[in-house]
Specification:
Blueprint: H1 2-18, E1 22-27, E2 33-35, H2 37-42, H3 59-73, E3 80-87, E4 93-104, E5 110-119, H4 121-177, H5 183-213, E6 222-225, H6 226-235, H7 238-243, E7 247-249, E8 259-262, H8 264-280, E9 286-293, E10 299-306, H9 313-316, H10 340-350, E11 355-360, E12 364-372, E13 374-375, E14 393-397, H11 401-413, E15 417-421, H12 424-433, E16 442-446, H13 454-462, E17 472-476, H14 481-489, E18 494-497, H15 502-515, E19 533-534, E20 537-541, H16 545-557, E21 561-565, H17 568-577, E22 582-586, H18 594-602, E23 613-617, H19 624-630, E24 635-638, H20 643-653, E25 657-658
Length: about 650
């Protein structure tokens, strides 16, 4: 019997030794507590040293632990499991996980409770470290968000403060440019305007860079005509190319979809940046802008090639980094912030594509980017020239091979038979030889050509009796009214400015074929409508006196009558006194800002409550447009305001009334 008890005792001691936990046994009747050697070792005591465990419970934990034990042995809790701190012999506290189970007699009185203690100090330290790290990260996140908000607020404020006077500078120079000036005054004025535009470009780059860096750049999605979009975009920088004598063309691959859906404004921003750079760094030759499919229906590839100075390999590896230019010296010939390519690459990435460059110093460069688009829908009003052109024979005379290929592509696309000549002499020879055959129905010729320019070629053509009424359309890279007038006198139907726009070219070809040799006015189309349009009555709410004057002059020159209110409150009072066709509402004004004024007007009764409201704001940060629309405004104009943009906005929202 004693041997059996001894073996059981040995097994129990062996089990306790194998267990890393400390074991305890509490006699609930006598109050005696047994602690295993491992239990004492956990808090630094020897196996024979007495330990008063209750006295070593952390003061902050003592009441909770006593209550938990009492609730368990009173059968008010289903289990006993607690974490608390025990003071070790060296005075340091150790974290303990306590678990136990009790025995009760038939009357429910507790007899005995046994359990274990596990040392969880390392786990608790890790949890505390994680908690502190999480709190630190939360504080860092809050600080970063506060800094981002502060940065956005600062940029919005600076944008408003800088754009407001810029609106006056650019607006007034534009208006002054329409007055009679001496050549010297006109030159001074152009310098002022160019400087203002350059400053505005820098501001836009900085704001865009900030938006992209903070993840606040949001893309729009709209259907648009990709072919017309490319022509319109390139035409915006045509004057810069023409001023340097550079050929600027924009051929479109026939396989390129015409109608797509995407963010046209951001695509144009990237394309204009690349095209503007190409023109800037090219002193002679050509700049070619292309768009073509990029392997799948949803991907497009844009390319901008030039014959400029090229980029060395050492610069190509960092050219897309912010604030970087090929020549970063203070004496560099070409200015700029060095942000354009960095912003463009980030925008392209947001649109699901990538950007790259191929270049050779002295031979030119080719920048390219791809974007992801969706299939767009053709607008209902999209029409082609009505005159039948299929099968008609046209002679193209242009010394630039890229231009010839572009014209051939466009004219073949509408079914015309095209013959090309590389200069005026070859063109005249082909034309004379064609008399023995079918001849030509139309001649498209370039104005700037070596040996024999467009005017000389036209005179030679008209000198032949059989070509006296042959339809001719001239193409030119410079806006020269004198040459256009001379061409018109020679019976040229139209002089088109490069880069060619498909719609304008087809309209001119169709018109020339329809009208025969009937010349057009050199000044372009005139308004032959019988009635003159009667413009509307505008309420302008603007607190800045300079901007009041600028906008007022623009409205007056566009044929609108207007009244001025200095703040939102005055605007509401003016609406009570009279009727207006549209409200131009500045967003930042004293007493009552534009947002409050728009909301106040929408709560009014009567027809004026739905009068169109267009916001005027110098804040172009992300979310400003949505804020305006949420306030009840219908559209949005960013300062500085340009006459042509304001004119289009007014035409959009103010119906033209025809006088009886």
């Amino acid at each position: 019997m004693e041997d059996r008890l001894r073996r059981q005792e040995d097994r129990w001691q062996l089990a306790m030794a194998a267990n890393n936990d400390g074991l305890w046994d509490w006699d609930c009747v006598t109050g005696e507590v047994f602690h295993s050697a491992r239990w004492k070792e956990m808090i630094g005591f020897g196996p024979d040293e007495p330990v008063d465990w209750e006295a070593r419970i952390h003061p902050e934990d003592a009441e909770r632990i006593h209550t938990s034990i009492q609730r368990y042995i009173a059968r008010q809790s289903p289990q006993y499991r607690e974490e608390y701190r025990l003071r070790a012999k060296d005075g340091e506290y150790r974290w303990i996980l306590a678990r136990g189970i009790a025995q009760w007699d038939e009357s429910g009185k507790p007899l005995r409770m046994v359990g274990s203690h596990s040392d969880i100090t390392l786990r608790k330290q890790a949890e505390e470290a994680l908690r502190l790290q999480t709190e630190a990260l939360a504080r860092a996140k809050e600080a970063a968000e506060a800094a981002a908000l502060s940065k956005s607020t600062f940029l919005a404020t600076m944008s408003h403060e800088i754009r407001t006077p810029l609106n006056g500078i650019i607006g007034m120079t534009g208006i002054l440019g329409d007055t009679e000036l001496s050549p010297e005054q006109a030159d001074f004025l152009q310098t002022i305007r160019t400087s203002g535009e350059a400053l505005l470009s820098i501001i836009n780059d900085i704001l865009d860079f900030s938006r992209v860096e903070s993840g606040r750049m949001e893309l729009e999605s709209e259907d648009f005509d990709l072919w017309a979009f490319l022509e319109e975009s390139v035409s915006l920088v045509a004057a810069s190319a023409h001023a340097k004598g550079i050929e600027l063309t924009a051929p479109i691959d026939p396989e390129t979809p015409r109608f797509v859906r995407g963010d046209a404004a951001r695509i144009r921003q990237v394309l204009l940046n690349l095209t503007g750079n190409a023109i800037k760094f090219t002193s002679k030759g050509e700049v070619v802008v292309r768009v073509l499919p990029a392997g799948t229906d949803s991907m497009l590839r844009f390319e901008v090639s030039d014959t400029g100075i090229g980029i060395p390999e050492s610069a190509r590896v960092r050219i897309f980094e912010p604030f970087t230019q090929e020549d970063s010296s203070t004496t560099r010939r070409f200015g700029g912030t060095g942000l354009g390519l960095a912003i463009s690459r980030q925008l392209v990435s947001l649109m699901g594509g990538e950007m790259g460059v191929e270049s050779m110093p002295g031979r030119g460069s080719r920048f390219w980017f791809t974007i992801r688009v969706e299939t767009g829908h053709k607008p209902a009003e999209q029409t082609e020239p009505a005159f039948e052109l299929a099968g008609r024979r046209v002679l193209v005379v242009d010394d630039n091979s890229t231009n010839r290929k572009l014209l051939e592509q466009l004219l073949h696309g509408i079914g015309m038979e095209v013959t090309s000549a590389e200069d005026g002499i070859a063109g005249l020879r082909i034309l004379l030889e064609s008399v023995k055959q079918q001849g030509f129905d139309l001649v498209l010729l370039d104005f700037q050509m070596p040996l024999m320019d467009g005017i000389m070629l036209t005179k030679s053509i008209r000198a032949q009796q059989q070509f006296a009424k042959l339809p001719i359309v001239m193409l030119s890279s410079i806006a020269d009214h004198e040459h256009a007038a001379e061409a018109a006198d020679l019976g040229v139907y139209a002089t088109l400015l490069k880069p060619l726009r498909r719609g304008a070219l087809l309209a001119a070809v169709s018109g020339a074929m329809c009208a025969g040799s009937r010349p057009r006015e050199a000044g372009g189309e005139k308004n032959t409508a019988g009635a003159q349009p009667s413009r509307g009555h505008i309420l302008l709410a603007e607190d800045n006196p300079v901007n009041q004057k600028v906008c007022g002059l623009m409205l007056g020159k566009a044929g609108y009558t207007f009244e001025v209110a200095a703040n939102g409150r005055e605007a509401i009072q003016a609406l009570d006194r009279g009727r207006f066709d549209l409200l131009l509402l500045d967003c930042q004004m004293p007493e009552m800002d534009g947002f409050a004024a728009a909301r106040a007007n929408r709560t009014r009764s009567g027809p004026d409550a739905r009068m169109p409201i267009v916001a005027l704001t110098a804040n172009v940060m992300s979310g400003e447009r949505e804020r305006c629309l949420d306030a009840g405004m219908d559209d949005y104009l960013a300062k500085p305001i340009r006459p042509e943009v304001l004119g289009k906005m007014l035409e959009k929202w103010v119906p033209i009334k025809t006088a009886p």
